[in-house]
Write a structure and sequence with these properties.
Blueprint lengths: L1 E3 L9 H8 L5 E4 L3 H10 L6 H8 L3 H11 L23 H19 L6 E6 L6 H10 L4 E5 L6 H9 L4 E4 L2 E2 L8 E4 L1 H5 L10 E6 L2 H10 L6 E5 L32 H5 L5 E4 L7 H7 L4 E4 L1 H4 L8 H13 L4 E4 L9 E4 L8 H6 L11 E4 L5 E4 L5 H6 L13 H8 L38 H9 L3 H12 L3
Helix pairs in contact: 1-5, 2-5, 3-4, 3-5, 5-6, 6-7
Length: 484
């Protein structure tokens, strides 16, 4: 009945996904920057030996051994606080990057599902195309139950899942700025070539498209390559990246995008498609589950409430400050139309010491060393290059970008890793500043606190959302289980 949002880079890691899944609801791990997060966790010494345990279960031990040897540091990187940089994603990724990406997504899903019979999904962004195929394959090796994808129109992904389950070579068309009419650029992944031999049988996970309109839902339902199994329908209050408003961009006096009635999803049209759907965006509140069921939904997706619970990957000090702001009624979430290099509006929690402050943003030297949000572009000679409006302006301009496109752009990749305590050490000796993203409901997270407590668990969230709706939710959940 409740799907936990696949939030940020490492925010919804395996501990959170497992905690939610064990309640009988769906836990979701985030696939964003998963290779970098995995490599940095190994360099931190793998506290608890969780990664080591997952690597022992990986069906290709020689690959696991190579990655372990390259990245694991028994001293937890204490002698050198600078993390090793991975190769950046590209159209033709190196063997090292493929192995790291497959192993990282396998590990995250394996640990979420370990000794746990509840459903586990993985969340990906259509805008981040280059690591997608390897990430999907790794998660399928671990038996992932669902794939959730938004931030674009992922029409080809259901078919990719079909072919990966059959061990077939898969391809993904890339969005390349400046591509000529009829010109196509693709990235590919071959499971047999990756393994070099036989493969274990793979289960095809169910696919849920994350949509913000009935038009997008209809497009996916009718034109996707392969079966779409349902939808997450996000309103404008949802955290992270939001769909841009329809029509010309207009801003409030404070500088936020103006949304109108045109941007409200038409639930009746989505319901008429005949596929299960879950409602997201300001549905992480008591009573909202009943409201969603009344509208014909199968349940709700909740992100922000889980983002600041004990099991999430966000740094403890950031969680504590968010809860403090919520208690005092001082939470401010700003929908920034320019922060993300993707061009999608991004909801950013306004918090001292983070990239939400102009002084912190301007003091950070610009660089692009992770590359997940780079966009591919066509060079004059027909080859593909990569650029990001969050990189140094002079570099971006040399690659054919414009100065206007760099206005206000933040390094979301490094900022998100700073939020989970895996930020790179800067030349100043300080760690990368955090960029905290959340939905409008960040102001309400204190409502999940038990009396006398200063933090709350994933179970606290589930219990509060389902209390009062439990009998109806369990009945609807049984009916839903029989139809999907």
């Amino acid at each position: 009945m409740i799907i936990q949002g696949g939030m940020g880079a490492g925010v919804s890691g395996w501990p959170l996904a497992r905690a939610v899944s064990e309640t009988g609801n769906m836990g979701v791990v985030a696939g964003t920057a998963i290779a970098t997060i995995f490599a940095r966790r190994l360099q931190r010494g793998d506290e608890g030996d969780h990664l080591r345990r997952a690597l022992k279960a990986f069906p290709h031990p020689e690959i696991a051994a190579r990655v372990w040897e390259k990245y694991f540091q028994a001293d937890g990187n204490s002698g050198n606080p600078t993390f090793k940089l991975n190769p950046m994603p590209g159209m033709r990724p190196s063997r090292n990057l493929l192995e790291l990406t497959v192993l990282a997504s396998f590990t995250e899903v394996f640990l979420a599902k370990e000794k746990n019979t509840g459903p586990v999904g993985i969340n990906l962004l259509e805008k981040i195309q280059l690591p997608t195929l390897a990430t999907l394959f790794g998660s399928m090796l671990a038996g992932v139950d669902y794939v959730l994808m938004g931030a674009g129109i992922p029409r080809t992904i259901p078919g990719v899942l079909d072919r990966l389950a059959s061990h077939e070579k898969v391809a993904l068309n890339l969005d390349v700025d400046g591509a000529l009419p009829g010109e196509k650029f693709t990235t590919t992944f071959d499971p047999v070539e990756f393994r070099g031999g036989s493969l274990p049988s793979l289960k095809r996970p169910k696919f849920l498209g994350i949509v913000s309109s009935s038009a997008l839902a209809t497009t996916l339902a009718r034109k996707a390559e392969g079966k779409v199994d349902g939808f997450i329908v996000e309103g404008t209050a949802a955290g992270g990246h939001n769909a841009p408003p329809r029509g010309p961009l207009q801003l409030t006096p404070e500088g936020e995008p103006v949304y109108s009635a045109r941007d409200v999803p038409e639930i009746d049209k989505i319901r008429n498609l005949g596929l299960p759907f879950w409602l997201a965006g300001a549905y992480g509140r008591p009573g909202k589950l009943s409201e969603a069921l009344d509208l014909g939904a199968a349940g709700i997706q909740v992100g922000t409430a889980f983002a600041f619970c004990e099991e999430s990957g966000i740094r403890p000090d950031i969680k504590a400050e968010t809860i403090r702001l919520s208690i005092k009624g001082q939470t401010r979430v700003f929908t920034d139309p320019y922060a993300s290099p993707t061009g999608f509006p991004l909801k950013v929690v306004q918090m001292s010491g983070t990239l939400s402050e102009r002084e912190v943003f301007e003091a950070r030297p610009k660089k692009c060393d992770l590359g997940y949000l780079r966009r591919a572009y066509r060079r004059p000679d027909g080859t593909v290059g990569y650029r990001c409006p969050g990189e140094p302006e002079e570099d971006y301009l040399k690659k054919g970008g414009t100065l206007a496109e760099t206005e206000g752009r933040k390094c979301v990749c490094n900022g998100l890793l700073g939020t989970i305590g895996l930020g790179q050490t800067l030349e100043t000796g300080e760690a990368e500043p955090a960029l905290v993203t959340a939905g409008d409901d960040a102001s309400l997270v204190a409502e999940f606190l038990q009396p006398g407590r200063s933090s709350y668990s994933a179970m606290d969230v589930v219990n509060r959302l389902m209390n009062g709706d439990r009998e109806r939710a369990e009945s609807a959940s049984l009916a839903q289980h029989n139809t999907i």
